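REQUEST ID: PR-0412
SUBMITTED BY: lab tech R.K.
PRIORITY: routine
TASK: structure prediction, single protein chain
INPUT:
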Amino acid sequence: MFGTILVVILLIILVIFIVIMFNKIVKSGNENIVALKTLDVVLKKRLDLIPNLQEIVKSYTEPEKVTLDSIDEMKNALLVKMTVSDRQKLEDKFSALFKDVFDSVSKYPAIQSSGNFGVLKSKLTEIEKEIETVRRAYNDTTRNYNALIKKAPYNVLAAILGYSKRSFFDVDLLTKEEVTIDFVDRRQEER
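STATUS: complete
OUTPUT:
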């Protein structure tokens, strides 16, 4: 009788322990998902600036259509569902694209003196800072989640339930491919 009660008590303690571990894994995973969704919102804000940038640049420089098409292609590529790792690589190229556009625009004083361009550049700078802050928060939650599911005894429960390591959203400055845009009108070269 006493042995049966002891076994029942131990089973109850084990179940409570497993439930607590499960809840901790779920909470950590949910925090990571919320951080990713927040990052998506900020990245979407930047994506929404593309049409404004295109219109401003188009109205002052009349660049070749291929350049504007490449901006459209980048925007469309970012709208497709993809892994965090693939999204990170594409977002890095997108950041480089914006940087190159603003560097190229420096050749056109009329654009720089435009109030619209100044507002757009200011918004983009603000959003890039926000992206960096939110990206760090996402990476913090990813690090915490990954560490939790690697820790014993959580790793056993995570493996049984199919929880796996998640990718970071880092900027890889060493291997990042720079996207370059040149607003030089090449139509004159074709003559």
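NOTES: The first helix runs from residue 2 to 47.
REVIEWED BY: pending
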